[in-house]
Amino acid sequence: MKAIVVADENWGIGKDGKLLAHLPGDLKYFKEKTKGKTLVMGRKTLESLPGCSPLPDRKNIILTSDDCFEKDGCVVCNGMDQFFDEIFFDDGQDVFVAGGESIYEQFLPYCEEIFVTRIMETFDADRYFINLDESEDFIKTWSSDICEDKGVKYRFEKYERK
Ligand SMILES: NC(=O)c1ccc[n+]([C@@H]2O[C@H](COP(=O)([O-])OP(=O)(O)OC[C@H]3O[C@@H](n4cnc5c(N)ncnc54)[C@H](OP(=O)(O)O)[C@@H]3O)[C@@H](O)[C@H]2O)c1
Predict the structure, then answer these.
(1) Distance 125 CA to ligand 1 centre (A)
(2) How far does residue 145's CA lie from ligand 1's centre (Å)?
(3) Residue 91: pLDDT band by 50, 70, 90 thresholds?
(4) For residue 18, what pLDDT band results from cuts at 50, 70 and 90?
(5) What's the CA gap between 65 and 147, in Å, rounded?
(6) Is the pLDDT of residue 92 over 90?
(7) Looking at ligand 1, which atom is closest to the CA of residue 14?
(8) SS3 category, 31
(9) Average pLDDT, the chain
């Protein structure tokens, strides 16, 4: 599996149920990377998406403990076991862990690669990703040139399991 995340300099990823910044270049990158693949996300992240709707052209798997939860265009799983049953026949390379904080935490042990959009600023955040630069398990293997949207600078980076 892979994870994909946009994080600020402190590894902040969200605040008040929303992303920290609107970066059109990052949304385009996310779309290119995940189109046709499977996404797994938490119920709160689904509800943070425009219209609380799943992302098109992808299989959207939603984790929730609510066994009555239903959403058009989503596969709902009530726990990790159910999730692993659901992707049993999928190619693990095609499964992207898409957040939020609780989902990244639980799924990171199963990820081989992490695509990070690293914003070169610090925001007020209440949700975080682990600090990959201090991780014993991952190493940065690629970093793009600096990109900029509306005055916000960021880089696309890739970390791989050591
Ligand atoms: N920067 C990024 O790349 C990025 C990406 C995604 C999200 N985010 C941000 O992250 C924040 C949301 O993160 P979050 O940690 O608060 O919420 P979350 O991870 O999106 O969703 C948490 C919910 O997922 C369900 N869940 C989690 N683990 C489960 C399990 N093992 N079994 C069953 N259900 C499980 C539970 O839903 P129930 O309560 O329904 O049981 C839980 O309340 C937002 O600010 C969002 O914008 C940032």
Answers:
(1) 15
(2) 30
(3) confident
(4) very high
(5) 38
(6) no
(7) 45
(8) helix
(9) 97
- For residue 78, what pLDDT is reported? 98
Q: Which amino acid is present at 82?
A: Q
For ligand 1, whether the C-beta of 45 sits within 6 Å is yes
Between the CA of 16 and the centroid of ligand 1 the distance, in Å, is 12
Whole-number percent of the chain with pLDDT over 90: 96
CA pair distance 25, 31, nearest whole angstrom: 10
Ligand 1 contact, 19 CB (< 6 A): yes
Compute the residue count for the chain: 162
- Residue ID of nearest Cα to ligand 1 atom 36: 64
pLDDT of residue 42: 98
Mutate to test the pocket of ligand 1, among 101, 104, 116, 130 (most ligand atoms within 8 A of CB): 101
Residue 61: name the closest of 48, 79, 50, 109 by CA.
79
Determine if ligand 1 sits within 6 Å of the CB of residue 13: yes
**What domains does the chain contain, in order, with CATH numbers?**
2-161 (3.40.430.10)
3-class secondary-structure state, position 140: strand
